[in-house]
Amino acid sequence: MSTIHDVLDRKGETVLTVNSNVSVLDAIKTMADASIGALVVRDDEQPLGMFTERDYMNKIALKGLSSATTTVADVMSSPLITVDIGEPVRIAMETMTECHCRHLVVMDKDAMAGIVSLGDMVKHMLEDKEAEVEQLSSYIAGSY
Ligand SMILES: NC(=O)c1ccc[n+]([C@@H]2O[C@H](COP(=O)([O-])OP(=O)(O)OC[C@H]3O[C@@H](n4cnc5c(N)ncnc54)[C@H](O)[C@@H]3O)[C@@H](O)[C@H]2O)c1
Predict the structure, then answer these.
(1) How far is Cα of residue 50 from the mean position of the Cα atoms in its chain?
(2) CATH number (domain holding residue 43)
């Protein structure tokens, strides 16, 4: 059974973060440059929460707030929703469904070990299924 560890093996352990006192405008510029939908908010190595595209939509755009004068701390989602590195992928996907979130910070004991998105999980599951189909096809072909 695939675990979050396997997902990180394929995608890497980098986590892009932002300080809580940074403006929302600077945070979304970072997200656009990196083509990602979320930043982990942390000060002094301490993860505080997550700032996502949805936070921008609901708390800035729809409320008419200025992204230049609002800080990430004002609109981030907190507490941080995490997943253990040994958790099966299927359970992590259930967590995403239950908490209506598309990103989970991966923890290895007390340390942040990576971040996984819904897209990562779907990609990983599809690759797993393709490998399974290939294995079964060659097994069936070999038994004739
Ligand atoms: N059609 C669908 O069913 C479906 C499902 C999921 C995603 N999507 C779309 O696919 C696109 C990609 O979505 P996604 O779920 O992969 O999210 P995403 O765009 O935030 O993530 C893209 C990649 O960047 C990584 N990433 C994100 N934030 C990071 C951070 N702070 N530090 C380091 N890496 C980070 C993710 O792990 C992923 O590998 C989006 O446009 C999304 O709307 C579509």
Answers:
(1) 9
(2) 3.10.580.10
Q: What is the pLDDT of residues 1-50, one digit of tens each?
A: 899 999 999 999 999 999 999 999 999 999 999 999 999 999 988 899 99
CB 65 within 8 A of CB 59: yes
Say how many domains are in the chain: 1
Ligand 1 first shell, C-beta below 6 A = 11, 14-16, 36-40, 102-103, 115-120, 122
36 CA distance to ligand 1 centroid (A)? 6
pTM, two decimal places: 0.90
Q: Omega into 88 within 30° of 0, i.e. cis?
A: no
Neighbours of 89 (CB within 10 A): 22
> How many Cα atoms are found within 13 Å in the side-chain-facing hemisphere of 36?
19
Structural domain range at position 44: 4-142
